[in-house]
Design goal:
heterodimer, A: mainly alpha, Arp2/3 complex 21 kDa subunit ARPC3, 6 helices, B: alpha+beta, 4-stranded antiparallel β-sheet, 1 helix
Chain lengths: 208, 123
């Protein structure tokens, strides 16, 4: 997404995984996203308000946006939707989840591209969650030919903010842990040769 | 938390708050309108006692439970059962849908139902 690696938020503190580690981590992320999707169903969030989800898989997606390239993460998103539909869904829920996930992904990438380090994962996640809900409602409206959006708008916005904030906090934590793990392995955030100093803490201005 | 986090959150919460404050009042009589394949097949007011209504959709059935304060889908034979997990709807124009069966259940006001709607179709 960035022409210059230095523009990527968090570039100073967390170098992207490379090579085999990258492939392995990406694959594990897909697994985590699928598991998260299945685990979510054990929690009956649905009973309170129809169609509301915790969006645990978005922790994985958002972390991936910070760690991997645009196309890799897009592949992750699409595969997550397809495989989750294999495990648990009908075509209907697949259509909803794909449209919500794609819109959410696009919005989050755009936001990070525009704001960079001026927004933390919390804000990005809130935007992602709201647009995910929007995408699902839009798909439902199109598939059923009615304007459902109006009634669900406030619920969609509020639940998006709440679940998005929670997911965002989780993503911050995940990225911090990864940063520390890479530091423990001697992986360095700066330079290919691993000669950069690893910042264990961070100043208050860090995104994660 | 950075400044833009707050801005974005406020940006999304504000219309929600406004909407909740300024929303149109519920219509006098709420009707439960059932559409199959886009056509209105049944229209009924909310009953005084819980009543079950079986809907024959495209390729299967849906069991709708009408209660004094709302409706919910009690059972269905569609593969995923999203409609059953939709919870209960209590306000217009909320809706429950079973996409595989092309079924849509919407709470609407009598005025919006168009042509006065159709009374319950038995059988």
């Amino acid at each position: 997404m960035w022409r210059d690696e230095a523009d990527r938020p968090g570039a100073q503190r967390l170098q992207r995984p490379t090579g085999n580690r990258r492939l392995a981590l990406l694959s594990m992320f897909l697994g985590y996203a699928l598991i998260a999707g299945i685990l979510e169903r054990a929690i009956p969030f649905d009973a309170v308000v129809p169609g509301v989800k915790l969006g645990l898989a978005n922790v994985v997606i958002l972390a991936a946006i910070y760690l991997f390239s645009f196309w890799e993460t897009l592949t992750l998103v699409v595969l997550k939707c397809v495989l989750t539909a294999f495990f648990t869904g009908s075509f209907a829920s697949f259509a909803y989840s794909l449209s919500g996930s794609l819109l959410s992904f696009a919005a989050m990438c755009l936001l990070i591209r525009l704001l960079g380090e001026r927004v933390s994962p919390i804000g990005v996640s809130v935007v992602g969650a709201v647009f995910h809900n929007l995408g699902q409602i839009a798909a439902a409206s199109v598939l059923m030919g009615t304007m459902l959006v109006a009634a669900y708008l406030p619920i969609l916005l509020v639940s998006g903010v709440v679940t998005g904030a929670l997911v965002g906090v989780a993503v911050k934590g995940v990225l911090r842990i990864l940063r520390r793990q890479y530091a423990a392995y001697g992986g360095a955030p700066a330079g290919q040769g691993g000669d950069g100093a690893v910042q264990k803490g961070g100043d208050g201005n860090d995104v994660f | 938390m950075k400044r833009w986090d707050g801005i974005l959150i406020a940006l999304f919460l504000l219309p929600a708050a406004l909407w909740l404050l300024l929303q149109r009042p519920q219509p006098e009589r709420l009707l439960v309108n059932i559409y199959v394949d886009g056509e209105l097949v049944s229209s009924a007011p909310l009953p005084a006692q819980a009543t079950a209504l079986r809907i024959e959709g495209v390729g299967g059935y849906n069991l709708l439970l009408l209660e004094p304060d709302g409706v919910r889908m009690q059972a269905a034979d569609c593969p995923a059962g999203d409609c059953v997990h939709s919870g209960k709807i209590t306000r217009a124009p909320m809706a429950i849908a079973c996409l595989p069966h092309h079924v849509l259940v919407v709470l609407e006001g009598a005025a919006e139902t168009g042509e006065g709607g159709v009374d319950i179709v038995a059988g």
